[in-house]
Amino acid sequence: MSLITFFCICLFIILVITGLTKKSDFFSPARIFALVWIFSIGLADLKLSRLQHDWSFYSWVILLIALLSFLLGTYISYVNNINKKLLSLNEVRSFLKIGDSEKKRLFNAILLLFIIYCICLFSEIYIEGFVPLFTKRPDMARNEFGLFGIHLFVNSQLVIMYFCIAFVLLTKSTKSKKIIIWSAFLFTMLSYFTLLERFNYFVWIIITFLMIYYSSKLIKPYKLIIGGLVFFVTLYTAIQGIRLSRYVSSYIYLISKMKYSIKYAAFTEPYMYISMNLENFTRAVDKLQNHSLGFLTFDWLFALTGMKKTLITYFNVTDRPFLISGFNTFPFMWYYFSDFGVLGVGLLPFVFGLSISEIYYKMRIKPSFLLITLYSFGVAFIVLSFFTNIFTMLNYFVCIVLSVLICSYVFKNND
Q: Domain ranges in the chain?
């Protein structure tokens, strides 16, 4: 065990223990960001694969600039709000009241979005002519399925499921309405499952978990954590069981050149899923010579305008260069470094750290469902930051916009 791994383990344990104290909020932005990245760096530093390399001093500096920049943003927000009275977590959970008018608008918003989802999903299936789950090669079919524009509303699945849970937990409704909402929830969850897209479920689990944590007293936090983990593992195993056979698991073990016995091949994908993002980043930082000046950071905007493919071809932009043996994901700061170099990783993570923290403190001072929803997406960005950046993806930009519109419509007299 290296000194870095030992330091990460110690710091991780300290942050977890202090986060479980009575007056602490375990899911405050700085703490959860630090936990995610301490865990990721500590795991990657184990070097359990022969594909991993020793990181250069320069790549360490760039990585730490990005991480410290984000934490500096959270610290400035903390200082800015240090003299303001924050509500306790129990007070935040007691603050939200959903009246009859809000309940009616929320019900109507869910049904409208559900109808749009169904129309778009069945249109895609009709045009594409197949459903990934029911093909001979579901692992390949899932990458080929989807039509631009229509699929953006199919990806609103996580928004529908999010507000369905909010309706069931936070409103006192008639049995018939709850049956309708549960039916919409189950159909959305099961129908989207046939597309074999697990990432949306991960985002949904995170934002729903945070919404319940900050808005409901009905479920104890420890039960929420256990239930969320069980659901996550079950869902991951189910999708993975379809997409990968045990032979493929052995194949991944072999191409990953793991240093441990093949008996533990099942651990290969989760380990490589986390560690190779950092390996790709530190390798690409050393090799990158030209910057793309905003193309990757504003990927969602170019995708929305339909210019993305044209610009990729014209400027010969590669968003994932210098990949190691087919592992093709990067942590959140890669796009900022690829676009703007040291300035990008020094400034943009700071902006996001400051912005997410400001939303957090506003939520703790005067809670609203809109702020809870926005912060939930902020935590999703943080938790998944070790291998992607959801704020650069058009589908999650649309999901955030839809969520804001629904919150503004439903709680227009409150927020």
A: 3-84+246-405, 92-243
